[in-house]
Write a structure and sequence with these properties.
Elements: E1 5-8, H1 13-20, H2 28-31, E2 36-37, H3 43-49, H4 52-60, E3 72-76, H5 90-111, E4 116-122, E5 127-131, E6 138-146, E7 151-156, E8 163-167, E9 171-179, E10 192-196, E11 200-207, H6 211-225
Antiparallel strand pairs: 1-9, 2-3, 3-4, 3-5, 4-11, 5-10, 6-9, 6-11, 7-8, 7-10
Length: 228
C-alpha cells in the first residue's frame, strides 16, 4: 500500500537557493500581467469549494469526475495554462516568458525532472477546489512556498476516509504524493484541495510509473534531503 502524502525535508542549501529564484513571480508587476483565474470569487465561495460539503459532492461523482479541479483562484504560470492579460504590460509579459523558460527548464535540467504539472501563485483567499487527478495518475513532487504559513493542503486518506490537513509553514516545503487512476485500487485514490490566507506558490512535477522514472525520483529526493 502506497503512502498517500508525505513531507520531504529540504536540507540542500543550493536547492533552496534555486527555489528562491521562483519568488521573482511574486512581484506585483509580474502577477498583474497574467490573468487571474477566479478573480471574481469571494471568500465564502472559496471556502465552499474547499469544504467538506463540496468534497463529498466530488467524491460522490465517482468515475464521472474527470480528475480536474472545477474551480481555482490564482495566477497560473504553467506554460499550457498561463494566460497573459491582454491589457497587461507587454515588456513585463516578455520578461515572464523568458524567466519561465529560464527557471523551469533550468530546474528540470539540473534535477532531471520532467513534466511541470502545476505552477500557481495563490493570493490571500486563493485556493484549488477538491479533485483527484485521476486523469493524470502519477507520483507528484509538490513544492510549496508560503508567505507566513497561513494556508494548508488537505487530502482524504483513502485508508481511513478522514480528511488530513497539512498546515503550511513559512518558506519552502516539499511533499511527495501518489495520485491513482480509476483503474487502480481505491486505496491509491487521492482527493485533495488547498486554501491560503496569505501569498502561496505551488510548483509540481510528475514522475510516471516506469522504472527509469522511479530511479530519477529517488535521486531527486536523496539530493534535496542532503546537507552536503
Amino acid at each position: 500500500m502506497k503512502e498517500v502524502m508525505k513531507d520531504i525535508p529540504i536540507r540542500n542549501k543550493e536547492f533552496k537557493k534555486m527555489l528562491d529564484k521562483f519568488l521573482w513571480f511574486t512581484q506585483q508587476r509580474v502577477y498583474q500581467a497574467v490573468g487571474q483565474s477566479g478573480a471574481s470569487i469571494d471568500k465564502t465561495q472559496a471556502h465552499y469549494y474547499t469544504s467538506e460539503e463540496y468534497r463529498d459532492k466530488i467524491i460522490s461523482l465517482g468515475a464521472t469526475h474527470d480528475g480536474f479541479p472545477d474551480s481555482m483562484r490564482g495566477y497560473s504560470f504553467q506554460h499550457t495554462r498561463m494566460k497573459l492579460d491582454p491589457k497587461g504590460d507587454l515588456d513585463v509579459q516578455q520578461e515572464i516568458v523568458k524567466k519561465h523558460a529560464e527557471l523551469i527548464f533550468g530546474f528540470e535540467e539540473e534535477y532531471a525532472l520532467k513534466n511541470n504539472a502545476l505552477f500557481v501563485l495563490y493570493p490571500p483567499g486563493g485556493y484549488i477546489s477538491w479533485h483527484n487527478n485521476a486523469n493524470a495518475s502519477a507520483y507528484n513532487i509538490i513544492l510549496t512556498w508560503s508567505e507566513n504559513g497561513n494556508g494548508h493542503f488537505s487530502y482524504v486518506d483513502p485508508n481511513t476516509g478522514k480528511t488530513v490537513h497539512m498546515q503550511d509553514k513559512p518558506g519552502w516545503q516539499c511533499k511527495l504524493g501518489f495520485f491513482g487512476s480509476y483503474e487502480d485500487p481505491k486505496s491509491e485514490m487521492c482527493y485533495h484541495a488547498a486554501y491560503t490566507d496569505c501569498w502561496r506558490m505551488t510548483i509540481s512535477f510528475i514522475f510516471d510509473r516506469s522504472e527509469e522514472s522511479q530511479f530519477l525520483q529517488e535521486m531527486f529526493l536523496e539530493e534535496i534531503q542532503s546537507e552536503e
